[in-house]
Amino acid sequence: MTASTTRRTTAAKSRTAAVGAIAVAGALLLSACGDQTNGGGTTGTTEPGKAVSSAPLFDKLPKKYQDAGVIKVGTDAQYAPMEFEEGGKIVGIDPDIAAALGKQLGVEFKFTSGTFDGLISSLNTGRQDLVMSAMSDTKARQEGLDDKGKKVGKGVDFVDYFNSGVSLLVKKGNPQNIKTLDDLCGKKVAVQRGTTYEDTFKQQAVKCDKDKKGKLAIEAFDTDAEAQTRVKSGGAVADMNDYPVAAYIAKTAGGGNDFEVTGGQTQAAPFGIAVDKDNTQLRDAIKEALDAIIKNGEYAKVLEKWDVKSSAVTEATINAGK
Asked: What are the residues whose beta carbons fall under 8 Å from the beta carbon of 170, sequence distance 6 or more?
C-alpha cells in the first residue's frame, strides 16, 4: 500500500468516527430533552406556558407558583430550633418541614428573614406568599385585630402544623425565684414586640394592678435576642417564649450557663403556616401536602431530629386557634 493510499484510508476512518460521534451526541441530546419534557423528577414543560412536575401535588398549586417554581416564605430567624441562621442559611424545624412540603408540591420554599411584627403585612402586600415563624394561630390574627380588638388588617388563614405551650425564660439560677406569672408583679419583663407573649404580659399587667400586687413593667424589643440580653444583664427578670425555643435557648446560650426555663409549659396552642385570606388555593395545597408528609412519615422524622416529638399534630387543620 502506498503512502497516499494510507493517508486516504486514515482520513476516511476519521470522517466515519466524526459522523458517529455527532450521531451519538445528537441521540443523547434528544434523550435529555425527552427526559425534561416528561418531568424526569423535575419541573419542565409539555406545551407552551404550562409547567409540569412529577411531584404528586404539583397540580394543586396556583399556576403562578407552578411557573415560578418557588414559594416565598417570610420568617424571623431568631427562634432556634424553629428557625435560625447558621452558616449563612436559615435552618431549623420550619425550614425542614417546608422542604418536605416542597417535595410533595414540586417547588422550592425560599425563606427570607424579617422582624416578626412585619410578617403578616408582608403577606398582605404580596412580598411573601407564606409565613412560617413559630407563629401562634389566634382568632385575632385570623381576623386582623390588635390586642385591643381593633381592626388593623384583613387577617390571614392558618394551616396548623405544630403544637406548643409557652414558658418563662429567666437568668440562670432564677435569682428572683420566678415560678408563675403572678411572681412577675412589681417587676420588669422583656419581650419581643408584636408577639402573643407581649399580649400575655399585658394581660398579666392588668391582673397585677387589679390584685394590687405591684405594677408589671414591660419592655418590648424588635428581636427576642434583645429581650434575652436584657434578662441576662439583670435589667429584666424574665422573657417569654414558646417552650421548644425557650428550652433550646436555656440549653445552648453561654454553654447552658445563661438562662433556665421556669414555670413549666402553659397555654398550649397551635402554630400555623399563615396564608393571605385571598390565596385559598395555595392554603388548601399546603394543607394537603402537610397531611401527605404526616402520612408518609417525613413530618415525624423532622420532629424527631429536633427532639420535639411531643409537639406533633396528627392531621392538618385550618384556623383551629382560639
From this structure: 176, 178, 231, 237, 238, 239, 259, 260, 261, 262
Find residue 92's DSSP bridge partners.
Answer: none
Q: Tell me the pTM.
A: 0.76
**CA-closest candidate to residue 192, choices 129, 289, 119:** 119
Are 47 and 105 in contact by the 8 Å Cβ rule? The answer is: no
Instruction: Encode 64-92 in three state secondary structure.
Output: HHHHHCEEEEEECCEECCCEEEECCEEEC
10-residue stretch averages of pLDDT, the chain, 322 residues long: 41 44 40 34 58 93 98 96 97 98 98 95 95 96 90 94 96 97 98 94 97 98 96 98 94 96 90 97 98 98 94 97 93
CB-side exposure of 50: number of CA atoms within 13 Å? 8
Distance, in Å, from the CA atom of 206 to the CA atom of 200, rounded to the nearest integer, reads: 10
Beta bridge partners, 169, equal 239, 261
